[in-house]
Amino acid sequence: MSTPPAAPSAETPERLAFYERIGQKHLTPLWTSLAKLVTPEPVSGCQPAAWSFAEIRAAMIEAGALITAKEAERRVLILENPGLRGQSKITTDLYAGVQLVLPGEVAPAHRHSQSALRFVLEGDGAHTAVNGERTPMRYGDFIITPPMAWHDHGNETDQPMFWLDGLDIPIVQFLDASFSEHHDEEEQPIARPVGDAHARYGSNLLPVDQRPAAGASPVFTYPYARTRDALAQLARGQAWDPCHGLKMRYSNPVTGGYPMATIAAFIQLLPRGFQTARYRSTDATIFVAVEGRGKTRIGADFVVEWGPRDIFVVPSWKPVVHEASDEAVLFSFSDRPVQEALQLFREDRHSA
Amino acid sequence: MSTPPAAPSAETPERLAFYERIGQKHLTPLWTSLAKLVTPEPVSGCQPAAWSFAEIRAAMIEAGALITAKEAERRVLILENPGLRGQSKITTDLYAGVQLVLPGEVAPAHRHSQSALRFVLEGDGAHTAVNGERTPMRYGDFIITPPMAWHDHGNETDQPMFWLDGLDIPIVQFLDASFSEHHDEEEQPIARPVGDAHARYGSNLLPVDQRPAAGASPVFTYPYARTRDALAQLARGQAWDPCHGLKMRYSNPVTGGYPMATIAAFIQLLPRGFQTARYRSTDATIFVAVEGRGKTRIGADFVVEWGPRDIFVVPSWKPVVHEASDEAVLFSFSDRPVQEALQLFREDRHSA
Amino acid sequence: MSTPPAAPSAETPERLAFYERIGQKHLTPLWTSLAKLVTPEPVSGCQPAAWSFAEIRAAMIEAGALITAKEAERRVLILENPGLRGQSKITTDLYAGVQLVLPGEVAPAHRHSQSALRFVLEGDGAHTAVNGERTPMRYGDFIITPPMAWHDHGNETDQPMFWLDGLDIPIVQFLDASFSEHHDEEEQPIARPVGDAHARYGSNLLPVDQRPAAGASPVFTYPYARTRDALAQLARGQAWDPCHGLKMRYSNPVTGGYPMATIAAFIQLLPRGFQTARYRSTDATIFVAVEGRGKTRIGADFVVEWGPRDIFVVPSWKPVVHEASDEAVLFSFSDRPVQEALQLFREDRHSA
Amino acid sequence: MSTPPAAPSAETPERLAFYERIGQKHLTPLWTSLAKLVTPEPVSGCQPAAWSFAEIRAAMIEAGALITAKEAERRVLILENPGLRGQSKITTDLYAGVQLVLPGEVAPAHRHSQSALRFVLEGDGAHTAVNGERTPMRYGDFIITPPMAWHDHGNETDQPMFWLDGLDIPIVQFLDASFSEHHDEEEQPIARPVGDAHARYGSNLLPVDQRPAAGASPVFTYPYARTRDALAQLARGQAWDPCHGLKMRYSNPVTGGYPMATIAAFIQLLPRGFQTARYRSTDATIFVAVEGRGKTRIGADFVVEWGPRDIFVVPSWKPVVHEASDEAVLFSFSDRPVQEALQLFREDRHSA
Fold first, then answer.
1. Is the dihedral of CA A279, A282, A283, A287 positive or negative?
2. ipTM of the complex
3. Which of B15, B72, B339 sits opposite A175 (nearest CB)?
4. pLDDT tens digits, residue range A293-318?
5. For the domain with range B49-349, which CATH number is right: 2.60.120.10, 3.40.640.10, 2.40.10.220, 3.40.190.10?
6. 0.90 exceeded by the pTM?
7. Partners for B (CB, 8 Å, 3+ pairs)?
8. Who's near B29: CB < 8 A, 6+ residues apart?
9. Contact A128, A155 (CB under 8 A)
């Protein structure tokens, strides 16, 4: 509706009585709410927001003294969108939190229908275990937990480990499809050595009988070292997308699709001084600065200056412009696979 | 979690002060809400519910006297789930309403990113137009409106026309992806004769250059006459699925998939006296009785006795048992395509 | 190679001796045959050809007196491309023959990895059985036999039954993938009533648990009555493709793809007096005139005048022009699914 | 047909005269050839065969003195299956040859609808260019040329370069779909630096807007170093498939499918002393020993003892048993993608 219809004229006493009466039968008139249900463009409570890692870290260290990983099950501080407080959401349909695992701690094994990603923020060498294989965690590593995969974390180093968790908790809640259970053991048994998934699925080879199949990526860790090398190689070509700089998506080598059915993840490099053209899309996106410093303008008014580990949110359909002071790398994730599967994804590449 | 963890012991004053302080930075502890976010089985506000058509019809006739289709844009009474009042939802992620178009009225042309279905409840011969083609509407016809397709309705008969609208409004809202606009004209121009889509796409033929493609079914009407014949033919085999009787899904002939990306629709026949085995699935489902009488038990306690045109809702993961007094036909729809696309669909066929 | 390289100069005695010597090790030089192996455009032994049904029919009746269906297993006269004699091929990779089943005869049940189509040319009411279901055969009906499906034919009428068989025998031979066996019984047991497949799969419905799956169409008969109605409906729009008139492909409702993995089939209507624009494609195509009279020019010189039941062949990459004297309907089939699966299909729509 | 039908009894003079007469109309009886056209199991002219690299190398060096790469366009000796002589085929539907490019030579740029693979046998550092990017060639590297991609080779080292070419020339010929042309330049212009394709497509990342798409793998080189590391990593698990040892297939990261539409390629490791269980499949396969020594029995009688660079052929449906004296690595390729696309692939894993 290019011009929303005027609210029906004269909510007469007759009509109001009618609404009251039918309300008792769980009926309600559409015409009093159509304009709010079907809008010309997206209308959302999700707002631009930003968190400096310094602030998050300080709060986490304090949390580390207040509760053990064992008691908490997951010692995580949830990043709540200021426009969606009390709902444990960072965007309308995604969840994000920062997790701390102290030296010697274990986040016990469980599994659930919710998918998860981890993006490592600080520390080196703690591990995540997924479906019987462990992977070490290093700064900038992107790690996934497929739905219903057993997973646990452990920190056998002498330094705290911090990472960002991204989950589709709101989506699974919305679809009334949450299932979960605890493992009998605190840590799942290990069935394959470190690096097995990468050799088996992530080296441009696949097992001879492997068919492309629906499901999350069997490559469950995307180490930053490998990703950073690829970005460096491609950056040599100096072929910058005006809207993105150099932007890649993490992929599932068994299908070429996204690593998980509900969450897409991206990594982009902005050369020093680069300013992106205005861009917007329907997938609200959470960003983590990985390298370099810069600033991002979201919509008309919101500006965040970021450095490594800082986190910010671009809501759906809000124009975004990034500007890198140094060569910068940004990690991001969104619900784009859901949008695309449901034929609802739109993007707008016109600078204006 | 088979046994949810006990709430962390002793929310100490220290912790409470911490929560308060970090709350101002839009941070909140996960451990106080994990049990509500990730549940062992789905937990939802959606409840079983039922509406008799007699009640709906009476309310609609009253509405017909209170507001014109023109003023309302769509003269619809929304069926609100009693556990989700005020949200215009019949299940956690779907919308349903009953629309009335009186003789001579037009529901003006518009389009939106939300997908819609119509299931005709009463009347004969009004039309729906989609993308330049009209189709007549008859009892039991299933008609779709793909996302962003121009659509309008008109009643050139001398009888009122009632149908059920099902839309993915909550899904599109949840994904912050609503777009819509009005057509310049009240009724869209007609480009193709009645029956064109069925001849072009629905007759086991396709245009020579047609490739399977994502998107809604180009067959936008599924007349009850054709559907009923197919059910009758198959019923002769007497091969009843214990959980469903004889259950079919409407399909998209270009892909073999669901007619729309977000909504699946089904038609099932229960022979006289048949009682289905207990069944449950994660896709909350809205049922419309089309023929015959029977009753349905939802969960432990909720029983609805239904006859033609009556409507009832089975929430996600609630066991359902149908029992047909006469040979009965039930129409139903749900968000199953979303569940399946996101790898979240589950069903449980064990009678217990 | 826009200009094929000159044959290597001077096949010296030294070279010839070398070729002789290495030939004993099963080695041979590429450079003496490269120009024949990799050509600038397709080079093929397949030629334009045509058969009048009158001639075929007369020969078949004679064959009917010379051998029984039982002795022959299949009383078929193979249509051999004049450029590919002795190879049982009508095009480089397809086989076609005309089968006669006399009143009271049975073509006994067998199955094989080769796919087959039947296009009914004369007679009414004999049956084909596929996978436990029979279908009556009427003029213009298109019927498929998926790979390894049991099939048999029977003529319980008092008139002879003639149809065209199209099979991928050369393809299966080329891939060394032929498997076949006889059924213990002459006629397979019947498990489902006539019309079951159409009700179950061909009515824009599918069984509730049906997923799009690879494999041949479960709708194994496409009656001409239904097809002809669709053509008539679409012809009203008068929207003629310059190259084809009105051309449709038979489709698999479970996928929207071709009815079989190796063979595509098409039906096209040419209005009275219509002449198609020159068109060529890499899939050599066999045509059967179904209704009306006309003529077709293939390449520069070959012209066939056809009427109902006449058969002709258009080789790969040869331009074709049809001209209809009356409103005409042409059936055709080709290896297009193979071409497309292997990324080799080309077509050229430019009239010249 | 479990027992092929007896040849029709008594080819009477009457029948023979009939066959002669209808032969002039390009008709021929099916019943005299059905048993040869549709066989109970594959029947093929393709035979087991083997070539020692020493023999091939000697012949190639001789060829190197007899003709320049420029004159030959491609200085290749074709490996002809002894059962298919004169057809330039190594199996019924594939071609293989060994190419030699001497120091300073260039194999000039051209393109064609045929797909090609290269497997490097000897030499280090010559290059292949595909679609504007060069890749160095090292022992054991697997390199592809997608259909219609410009490609050329150059040897700027001081040592000869030998590799195996595998092409689908017979398939493209069979489908009458050959197209080809020469480039204006001897060497195509270079648009991207070495390693670009691997960074862009082969690192578990894809360009942000990349959708899974049909077509050959954009990763056009699979260096042996990376492949060998993956095999070594997986071999640690000691989980040997009885039929294959450890067998992987090269994959297309954009789809998870085969690297080309017509040719699959595999790499397998056999631990020292390992003997595979009898295995057969419908895809005739060409093997190249890469490391180690062993022997292979094909069918009942054919045994080849192989060492690095030796080549042998296993026809369709012939049982094969490998036995490795040392830890061995075998490269192989076949038409499996065609077989699978056409629903004709079979394998038989039962040792007997």
1. positive
2. 0.93
3. B339
4. 999 999 999 999 999 999 999 999 99
5. 2.60.120.10
6. yes
7. A, C
8. A63, A67, A72, A76, A77, A78, B15, B19, B22
9. no
